[in-house]
Design brief:
Layout lengths: L8 E5 L3 E5 L4 E4 L1 H12 L2 E9 L2 H13 L6 E4 L5 E5 L7 E4 L12 H8 L1 E6 L2 H5 L3 H11 L6 E5 L4 E3 L5 E4 L3 H10 L2 E5 H10 L8 H11 L5 E5 L5 E9 L2 E9 L12 H16 L8 H18 L9 E6 L5 H13 L4 E2 L1 H4 L6 H10 L1 E8 L7 H12 L3 E6 L7 H7 L7 H10 L1
Parallel strand pairs: 1-4, 1-8, 2-6, 4-5, 8-9, 9-12, 12-13, 16-17, 16-18, 18-19
Antiparallel strand pairs: 2-3, 6-7, 10-11, 13-14, 14-15
């Protein structure tokens, strides 16, 4: 078995395709690919295991993967055409999909290099679509891959129930089977579902009665001891995470809910996959036993990434990471620039609003995304910054998203009450802590 240090890959296995939107826009898609992108941006190397055709669409996917930074070594070429999906995004919160199942991803081959990849995989994401539509070849490959994984690998099953349209454009043709769903529920240790999928699982597992989504989730985790974490996506309402933990009274199921408002979402395609990828990436970053991991922090970051996807209308938006986010008043700019040069001399990347925000961009969204994607927030305390409402909101958002905040005192001044409540017990510039936080990322 590979050591923890060697297991650096986060893998999505199944469909890689092109989403074709109603306005003619074409984007890379497929739940496993979206997961691999977001998990890879958070931890290790994102890898997609799938197949494309020897055609122009296949070439476009390969080019797109290079741009996204997703490994394409395991993207095989078959005799079938590259997969496409027509996306009906009239309702941004409830898109519909017409999936072309005569596609290359139904014929993903299995070979020795895939076995080696599995042995070095830290987390894998899979759903029923490729196995159901590729009953002979792709299902065999996915099953073989799952069987070759290390015991401590995160195995995330995305129930992802898809229906193709039949007559009168009603989406009632299932692209899954009950037997397949039950097989993979028994093989995963992380289960991802939405509300409708949760209801379906309860029905096939004999869970009846007018009970809450929370209770349904807990019952499923009790029925399937292999499931250590359950992620429940709730659309506009946010998401809930359930996980098994031990306390003084014995084993119990813990729960964390988090929601964030998205103004004018363009569409929610890939939001759940982005959430799962970010969540698992955060867990892997901590490299600890589940009992020691900060699940709530990982879940909060995952929900924020999911909201970013909805806001951008892009399932795999660019994610620019920085080591340090600078929170300051522009009236202190001269001395702040000096510190920025000092940080740059340590080869640390720095994000500062005046330098990074382009004209015409939404100022608040850019600030929030920069905070989400940084490793540490450095707050320059002065009489000017302590009176700034903008700085106050930055510190509050950094605290809300679980970021490490390190204050630097430029001048003695009375702290803003809301800022003081967050940083009053924090050490001012602790160089060793700053280095350690950035090094551990």
């Amino acid at each position: 078995m590979a050591t923890t240090e060697e297991k650096k890959y986060v893998v999505g296995i199944g469909e890689a395709l092109l989403d074709v939107f109603s306005d003619g826009t074409r984007r890379l898609g497929g739940a496993p690919l979206i997961f691999a992108y977001h998990a890879g941006k958070t931890f290790g190397k994102g890898v997609i295991v799938s197949a494309v055709g020897d055609d122009e669409d296949g070439m476009d996917i390969r080019k797109g993967l290079k741009t996204l930074g997703v490994e394409d070594k395991y993207l095989f070429v078959t005799g079938k055409p590259t997969g496409t999906v027509k996306v009906d995004d009239a309702d941004p919160n409830d898109p519909k999909y017409n999936i072309d199942i005569n596609s290359a991803w139904t014929e993903i081959p299995y070979d020795e290099q895939l076995k080696k990849l599995a042995e070095n995989t830290a987390a894998v994401y899979f759903g029923p679509l490729a196995s159901h539509c590729g009953q002979i070849i792709s299902k065999n490959t996915i099953d073989e891959f799952l069987g070759a994984l290390p015991e401590d690998c995160w195995k995330i099953f995305d129930v992802n129930l898809r229906y193709n349209p039949v007559e009168h454009n009603k989406y009632t043709r299932p692209l899954f089977s009950e037997d397949l769903i039950k097989q993979y529920i028994n093989q995963c240790n992380v289960l991802k579902v939405n509300k409708e999928e949760l209801d379906y699982l309860c029905t096939i597992c004999g869970v009846v009665g007018n009970i809450s989504n929370k209770k349904k989730s807990e019952i499923l985790m009790e029925l399937y001891p292999n499931i250590r974490i359950l992620l429940l996506t709730l659309g506009e309402e946010g998401s809930a995470a359930f996980w098994k933990k031990n306390d003084k009274k014995g084993p119990k199921i813990a729960y964390h809910y988090y929601g964030v408002s998205v103004e004018q979402p363009l569409n929610s395609v890939g939001a759940g996959d982005a959430l799962a990828g970010t969540f698992i990436g955060e867990l892997l970053n901590e490299n600890k036993d589940l009992s020691q991991v900060d699940i709530e922090k990982a879940h909060t970051k995952a929900v924020l990434r999911s909201a970013q996807v909805c806001s951008a209308g892009n399932s795999m938006p660019p994610i620019m990471k920085s080591d340090i986010f600078i929170s300051y008043s522009r009236r202190d700019e001269k001395v702040v620039i000096y510190f920025c040069r000092l940080f740059n001399a340590q080869n640390w990347s720095v994000w500062r609003d005046k330098k990074e925000i382009k004209y015409g961009k939404n100022f608040r969204k850019e600030i929030e995304q920069a905070i989400e994607n940084c490793k540490v927030v450095v707050y320059f305390s002065s009489e000017h910054s302590n009176k700034s409402k903008y700085v106050e909101k930055e510190i509050q958002y950094a605290n809300k998203t679980g970021k490490t905040i390190i204050p630097i005192k430029l001048k003695e001044s009375v702290l803003n009450g809301n800022i003081e409540s967050i940083i009053s017990e924090k050490n001012y510039l602790d160089w060793d802590m700053l280095c350690k936080t950035i090094e551990e990322g």
